[in-house]
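Tip: read the tokens left to right.
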């Protein structure tokens, strides 16, 4: 999903699409996509639901990897309703920074809640996975998922998440 523009750098118009791609070490291809007319959360969640339901007509979905821009409590709730395993990159919100400061380990797994404070408030429990970033020594990659994970499982999970980046640079 691309939604930001930068007129100073020559980008004054952006079209937003949700795409569902198959990603493996051997192949990448787009299975379903849809134009997003409005990027408000309810519209975006509706388009994502439609794309997942369209894709499910052709394939069995093992896990969905979402970019940080999709870190929204309503989407997490919708993916749970669809009974699809997901991994979403978590921005370093105040809550996540607090959890990071409470742990001395570089790699850890903990229970967490994605929260919407505005009316109507909403809370969805998730698993927070933290691993060291490959490119920066002093930073960590934070992911949320709706499946329990062990510390032994998180490095392969993070590696699988990183492979999805190839879709955006392909």
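Filled-in amino acids:
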């Amino acid at each position: 999903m691309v939604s930001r523009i930068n007129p100073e750098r020559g980008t004054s118009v952006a079209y937003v699409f949700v795409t569902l791609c198959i990603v493996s070490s051997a192949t990448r291809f787009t299975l379903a996509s849809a134009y997003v007319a409005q990027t408000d959360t309810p519209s975006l969640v509706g388009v994502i639901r439609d794309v997942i339901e369209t894709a499910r007509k052709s394939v069995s979905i093992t896990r969905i990897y979402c970019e940080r821009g999709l870190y929204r409590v309503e989407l997490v709730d919708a993916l749970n309703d669809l009974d699809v395993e997901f991994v979403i990159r978590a921005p370093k919100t105040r809550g996540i920074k607090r959890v990071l400061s409470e742990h001395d380990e570089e790699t850890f797994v903990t229970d967490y809640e994605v929260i919407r404070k505005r009316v109507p408030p909403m809370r969805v429990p998730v698993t927070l996975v933290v691993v060291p970033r490959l490119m920066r020594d002093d930073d960590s990659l934070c992911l949320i998922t709706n499946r329990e994970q062990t510390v032994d499982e998180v490095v392969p999970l993070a590696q699988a998440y990183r492979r999805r980046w190839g879709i955006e640079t392909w």
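The first strand starts at residue 17 and ends at 23. The chain has a mean pLDDT of 86.
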